[in-house]
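Progress report, Aim 2. The chain analyzed during this reporting quarter is listed below.
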Amino acid sequence: MLSKLKNYLDLYIHTRIKYLPISLKLAFIYSIMLCLILFITLSSTLIGIHYVLYHEAEVSITLSANYIEKKANNEDVSNLLQDVKSSALMPGVVMRVTDSNDNIIYDSLPMYISINQVHDTLVHQQQDPDWGDYIRNALLPADLKFVNFKHFWIFYTHRTITKNNETYTLHFLRTITAEKAFLEELSKTIFYAGLVGISISIVCGFLLSRRLLKPLRDITSTVKNIEIQDLNQRIKVQPTHDELEELANTFNLMLERLQKGFEQQRQFVSDASHELRTPATVICGYSDMLARWGKDDPQTADECITAIHAEAINMQRLIEKLLFLARADQKRQVLHKENINLRLLINDITKDTQLIAPQHTVICKQNDDGYILADELVIRQMLRIFLENSIKYTPDGGKITISSENKVKHMIVKISDTGIGIAKDKQDKIFERFYRVDSARTRNGVGGTGLGLSIAKWIADAHDIEIRLSSKLNKGTTIILIIPKDN
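Predicted structure tokens for the chain:
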């Protein structure tokens, strides 16, 4: 039962910490780090002060004990005691000499605490050890003891000597009185200062993390307010030159791309609906006419059937183009690239164009050998799109020229016509979907869906083909295709 409760508490605490806000996590981490720094710094300071005081007492009592023991082994006890009375002891060290019956035969400071009290306190410390006393005794030499009294500390050691078949014990004591009170007060001060420092660190860490993450909260707020129908909002970017500024700029760029994509999608749907509505309306009109009068009038029936068939073919072509662009946008348009001889392809395209456009002069001016890595079907489709536009916007009797030239790294294909041309301010828009140059359509009485050049542009991009356009009104248009060779 207890193990299940412990596991539940561990899971609960881990989950609560995991799903805390980032500001609280940062404040928590910041506080832990500062607490560790404070703990290490203050503890090192306190330990250093303790070491200085303890070391001085340890040195003085150890030097005195070693010196007296050495002299005791070489002199009589009476001479030794006479030396001790002079200056054999370090300042602050008290010496007592007892015989085998624990009778004191010499005491350098009679009013000092008795040896029995020191022994009793040591026994009590060993039976009920305090962690501080335990650490202090562990750091001292084995023959030196730390004795903790209420108002002072004592360092105690003893030496045993034998003279004239009599055993004597030399007791050495060193008192720390004022230093104990100072260290106790210092320890309390450091403890409370540490608590205050930890409290301040928690508050400052929380406030600092909230301030640092304010741009992130602004981003979150802006994102929540943005809807698909309203992508005009942007995140206010503060010139902080940090990762959050970069994130805000990146998000704004993403919003711009999304907005542009949605606008293109809405325009695409609107234009597609408009283009499909026209043949659908024509078909509905002729079908109504056929239902009313076609049964009794064969001429009307033939006219309606011919018109419906033509509009159905136009609709089919439009739908095929829309499906092609949809697959291209979704990156599902599969290309089967292989080595193809561009010269043979240009020959075939030229012959086909001559057959379908007998009212124009179609010639192949130059056709060099050269191999390219491409999907032959879609490359043929791209060239036909450019040629169909030349046929549409070139008056009868005009001239259309096709040529291919082999360069070091590229094949240069040019398609030129003597048509009506394209105004300079409209040349950048002709590859947009459903865009049509109205003046050209009006002049010639022809028009298309406005999707052909968009498809050609996608095919060119998919094959790393660069398209260049040169056109002047009433003088003609030249399309230049720079196609990488398959070396």
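The mean pLDDT is 78. The first helix runs from residue 2 to 18. These observations will guide the mutagenesis work planned for the next reporting period.
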